[in-house]
Amino acid sequence: MDVLFSQLFAGLSLGSVLLLAALGLALTFGQMGVINMAHGEFMMAGAYTAFVVQGVVGSAGVSLLVSLPLGFLVGGLLGLLLEATLIHRMYKRPLDTLLVTWGVALVLQQVARDVFGAPNVDVRSPSWLSGAIDLFGIGIPKTRVFILALAVVAVVALAVVLKATPLGRRIRAVVQNRDLAEASGVSTRATDRLTFFIGSGLAGIAGVALTLLGSVGPTLGTSYIVDAFLVVVAGGIGQIKGTVIAAFALGLLQATFEYSTTASVAKVLVFVAIVAFLQVRPQGLVSVRTRSLA
Amino acid sequence: MSALDSLYRSSRARVIIGFAVAAVLLFGVAPATMSTFRLGLLGKFLCLAMVAVGIGLAWGRGGMLTLGQGVFFGLGAYMMAMHLKLADAAQVEGSGGVPDFMLLYGSGVVPGWWEPFRSPVVTVLAILVVPAGVAALLGFAVFTRRVRGAYFAILSQALAAAFAILLIGQQATTGGTNGLNGFRSFFGYDLADPVNKRMLFFIAAGALLVMVAIARQLMVSRFGELLVATRDQEDRVRFLGYDPAKIKVVAYAVAALMASVGGALFVPIVGIVSPADVGVVPSIGFLIGVAIGGRATLLGPVLGSIAVSWAQTSLSEQFPSGWIYAQGALFILVVAFLPGGLAELFTRWRRSRRTPVPDDGTATGDGGDPGDGPGPDESADITGPAYSGRTS
């Protein structure tokens, strides 16, 4: 029973990390069909933001609370800059966007290496997050619980923005039918920019959260980006629901396979599972129904 | 002069002349003028260029952005490396035919899936068949369900990530992060001997020429036309009664085969293969040369790939971090602003020279050899109708 719970929690915890990383991706991919390979580097930027803030503030608790909004801002502004300079020229060429943003990712990684040095740096966790909560007879690290809660808050906040604000209405309109939205007076240009800002900002928050789990290095983003993309592919685009389910499903799957085999074999098995799943639902778990041929 | 001119204009003659020039350069000029070290370096570039030929076919002609060619490159490389390790171990007294690293890290027993690679024939066959088979299997699973575009790109990338992680995880049987290295002989030939090194270079050069010839035949064939049609208007191809999935699977499998052979020859020439050669980053790295040279052309990927490898070697010797900035900048500039690659510039320049009076379309009536590089109309296809077919 203990084993079951601890595996369940390991899966949920991994799922929450994946969710934080994939949420922003799902937003930008779903809205604009743009694959942003630099998303992982925006996470890295968020993580280094936390490192810098801690250097200035000192107190680990205060710096975490300051870093979260600041990480959002840093990630968001980077995303805005990328959208305004490169991506908006390339909406007709989604595959090429992938390669261009990969180039951006390479440059950002090297910038981080030159500014902060190649070795990893550490961000201290606040004292109120050290230790573990005892639940069903197993100890659960408080940092993991915090990240799970953060992921839930991020999802709820994003859902509220999408469902209940004028901006959210515009975003959903553009996702469903860009031309019709534009014809109805929605400024797709402004909507795109704001979506990119929010999506990239979420990456920044994810980066800050990752500092609680390990040290921060220039390649922090690359280790999460592939899994995050798999979540988006399996979850389907256009709705948060699919991303949430896919993130936790992949997290649980990975944890289960890891328990019965090894971490590296588990990765391969998860990949096979996703390809098999796409046989059943090629558009992912949840997809917006359209009359298009795709 | 006019006879020479008409000879130049005949596309078949031009191809033969092209191959002859390449053969003279690779088999005559290069070995005569370069040191053994430089020749080995060029041999390595040729192996990477083989991967590029395949990518040009799958991505440039077929529109399948494959971010996982490192997997097929790695499969070929590792199978060759396994054979070389086993063959070396068989020569060492007292090792019992067990490769050195297995005695160090592993149980000292050769695992069962290594055993077939003791045979050179099985190894060569496996290099030709296994990666193409894996690609066909994955392609069949994915393309028949009409998973395409970005989804396919992401899946192929995930495959590369999973493959590299798997290799790193199995330290005892794959060498882990160190990979496989320290080969002494290649099918019985001593690898330290400069003559044999030269022979390896000739094998690589010959293999590359054969692959370019295969790619050209595929491009000018009906298959090649269907492939381009599938890239630009997949639904229309389906409505005409063809199966786009089959067309794409063939192109993808051929690309995998080329990557595999490139990997297999890379191992004896370079002397090492490790997960760092096959993961996500090197897999995408293969693409930059293809993009620079001109993804949809025959020679663009080859020349672009060799140029990028050369630039990487000479730049990273002097400025280690400079190369990464340069690579990032190349991806951004070429893909965003010059999607046809340098071939596009070349074609524009040649057209402007041939027809001083600017006219649209009439200059394209000179045979329309598909291996000719993308004309203005064709390169527009890469950027325009290829994706604008989406109606939602």
TrEMBL record, chain A:
<keyword id="KW-0813">Transport</keyword>
<feature type="transmembrane region" description="Helical">
    <location>
        <begin position="228"/>
        <end position="253"/>
    </location>
</feature>
<keyword id="KW-1003">Cell membrane</keyword>
<keyword id="KW-1133">Transmembrane helix</keyword>
<feature type="transmembrane region" description="Helical">
    <location>
        <begin position="194"/>
        <end position="216"/>
    </location>
</feature>
<dbReference type="GO" id="GO:0022857">
    <property type="term" value="F:transmembrane transporter activity"/>
</dbReference>
<keyword id="KW-0812">Transmembrane</keyword>
<feature type="transmembrane region" description="Helical">
    <location>
        <begin position="265"/>
        <end position="282"/>
    </location>
</feature>
<dbReference type="InterPro" id="IPR052157">
    <property type="entry name" value="BCAA_transport_permease"/>
</dbReference>
<keyword id="KW-0029">Amino-acid transport</keyword>
<comment type="similarity">
    <text>Belongs to the binding-protein-dependent transport system permease family. LivHM subfamily.</text>
</comment>
<keyword id="KW-0472">Membrane</keyword>
<feature type="transmembrane region" description="Helical">
    <location>
        <begin position="50"/>
        <end position="82"/>
    </location>
</feature>
<dbReference type="InterPro" id="IPR017779">
    <property type="entry name" value="ABC_UrtB_bac"/>
</dbReference>
<dbReference type="GO" id="GO:0005886">
    <property type="term" value="C:plasma membrane"/>
</dbReference>
<dbReference type="GO" id="GO:0006865">
    <property type="term" value="P:amino acid transport"/>
</dbReference>
<dbReference type="Pfam" id="PF02653">
    <property type="entry name" value="BPD_transp_2"/>
</dbReference>
<feature type="transmembrane region" description="Helical">
    <location>
        <begin position="145"/>
        <end position="162"/>
    </location>
</feature>
<dbReference type="InterPro" id="IPR001851">
    <property type="entry name" value="ABC_transp_permease"/>
</dbReference>
<protein>
    <submittedName>
        <fullName>Urea ABC transporter permease subunit UrtB</fullName>
    </submittedName>
</protein>
TrEMBL record, chain B:
<dbReference type="InterPro" id="IPR017778">
    <property type="entry name" value="ABC_transptr_urea_perm_UrtC"/>
</dbReference>
<feature type="transmembrane region" description="Helical">
    <location>
        <begin position="323"/>
        <end position="346"/>
    </location>
</feature>
<feature type="transmembrane region" description="Helical">
    <location>
        <begin position="66"/>
        <end position="84"/>
    </location>
</feature>
<dbReference type="InterPro" id="IPR001851">
    <property type="entry name" value="ABC_transp_permease"/>
</dbReference>
<feature type="transmembrane region" description="Helical">
    <location>
        <begin position="199"/>
        <end position="219"/>
    </location>
</feature>
<keyword id="KW-1133">Transmembrane helix</keyword>
<dbReference type="GO" id="GO:0005886">
    <property type="term" value="C:plasma membrane"/>
</dbReference>
<feature type="transmembrane region" description="Helical">
    <location>
        <begin position="96"/>
        <end position="114"/>
    </location>
</feature>
<feature type="transmembrane region" description="Helical">
    <location>
        <begin position="285"/>
        <end position="311"/>
    </location>
</feature>
<feature type="transmembrane region" description="Helical">
    <location>
        <begin position="149"/>
        <end position="168"/>
    </location>
</feature>
<feature type="transmembrane region" description="Helical">
    <location>
        <begin position="121"/>
        <end position="143"/>
    </location>
</feature>
<feature type="region of interest" description="Disordered">
    <location>
        <begin position="353"/>
        <end position="392"/>
    </location>
</feature>
<feature type="transmembrane region" description="Helical">
    <location>
        <begin position="249"/>
        <end position="273"/>
    </location>
</feature>
<keyword id="KW-1003">Cell membrane</keyword>
<dbReference type="Pfam" id="PF02653">
    <property type="entry name" value="BPD_transp_2"/>
</dbReference>
<feature type="compositionally biased region" description="Gly residues">
    <location>
        <begin position="364"/>
        <end position="374"/>
    </location>
</feature>
<keyword id="KW-0472">Membrane</keyword>
<dbReference type="GO" id="GO:0015658">
    <property type="term" value="F:branched-chain amino acid transmembrane transporter activity"/>
</dbReference>
<protein>
    <submittedName>
        <fullName>Urea ABC transporter permease subunit UrtC</fullName>
    </submittedName>
</protein>
<feature type="transmembrane region" description="Helical">
    <location>
        <begin position="12"/>
        <end position="33"/>
    </location>
</feature>
<feature type="transmembrane region" description="Helical">
    <location>
        <begin position="39"/>
        <end position="59"/>
    </location>
</feature>
<keyword id="KW-0812">Transmembrane</keyword>
